[in-house]
Write a structure and sequence with these properties.
The chain is of the alpha/beta class and 246 residues long. It has helices at residues 15-28, 55-68, 143-147, 166-180, 228-240; strands spanning 2-5, 35-37, 71-80, 83-92, 97-102, 125-127, 130-136, 154-159, 183-188, 203-206, 212-216, 224-225. A six-stranded mixed β-sheet has the order 5-4-3-2-1-12. Strands 6-7-8-9-10-11 form a six-stranded mixed β-sheet, with helices on one face.
Length: 246
């Protein structure tokens, strides 16, 4: 499985500009790329301006991924009736299915909870014959959200994580990988946010043993590859050391 981690620097509060950037990046993805991943709130940057939600932009990116025959994962602002959510969507063109997740732990430090409604469920799906789940940023600090998703082989966490807490980002990702005996991929955005916060621009991945298997901090990264042999080794470790059963 080849995953392109896009440390995207969105124009703050400019969804139309960012939509075009995302389309261009999908077009540039290598032909053997299985999945292109964008960060949390990729269309707008991390914002409390919830009125910037635009389902049409989301559908445009999904249609581009469909034409490219490449799966895509991105964060966006979702409106459902009178509620707004910090959401993320995984689209699989082969299955022609979308899997949506709403951030469950809102970042009260930035008063995110005053603008958005928390989600109430996890998401799990099969991609390339492997079980996957994705979560959003602050969710990473809550191990119970990961443990409740039984059998997941790859977790992906998309984020707008500040550079000032970069060490926390890496440590927590590693811990979640060890605890769940699973691969975990963390993608942070780059650039500066709407109130001047500098983001980490760090993509990192750990295997089921907590070994770092990927670290990159360039704008358009090389693909992360997890092979079938890697998955078999993970399953062997789970059988040998069945901590998830205890």
């Amino acid at each position: 499985m080849k995953i392109a981690l896009i440390e995207f620097n969105p124009e703050n509060n400019e969804p139309q500009i960012n939509t075009q950037k995302m389309i261009e990046i999908i077009n540039q993805a290598e032909e053997d790329t299985d999945l292109v991943v964008f960060p949390e709130m990729a269309f707008t940057g991390f914002t409390m301006n919830k009125e910037l939600h635009n389902l049409q932009d989301v559908e445009t990116v999904i249609e581009r991924a469909r034409c490219k025959n490449t799966a895509v994962l991105f964060g966006w602002i979702e409106k459902d009736e009178n509620n707004f959510y910090n959401s993320s969507t995984f689209f699989d063109p082969e299955a022609n299915k979308s899997y949506n997740y709403r951030k469950r732990k809102l970042f009260t430090y930035r008063e995110e909870d005053k603008y958005y409604t928390p989600g109430n469920s996890s998401v799990q799906y099969e991609f390339k014959s492997h079980s996957m789940s994705h979560l959003i940023c602050y969710d990473l600090r809550f191990p119970e959200l990961f443990r409740e998703i039984k059998g997941t082989e790859i977790f992906i966490v998309i984020a707008c994580w500040p550079r000032s807490r970069e060490d926390h980002w890496k440590a927590l990702l590693k811990a979640r990988a060890i605890e769940n005996q699973a691969f975990i991929v963390g993608l942070d955005r780059s650039g500066v946010g709407e109130i001047g916060e500098e983001y980490g621009n760090i993509s990192v991945a750990f295997d089921y043993f907590g070994k770092e298997i990927y670290l990159e901090n360039s704008i358009f990264t090389k693909n992360l590859e997890i092979t079938e042999k890697d998955f078999q080794c993970m399953k062997k470790w789970r059988r040998k050391f069945p901590v998830l059963n205890d």
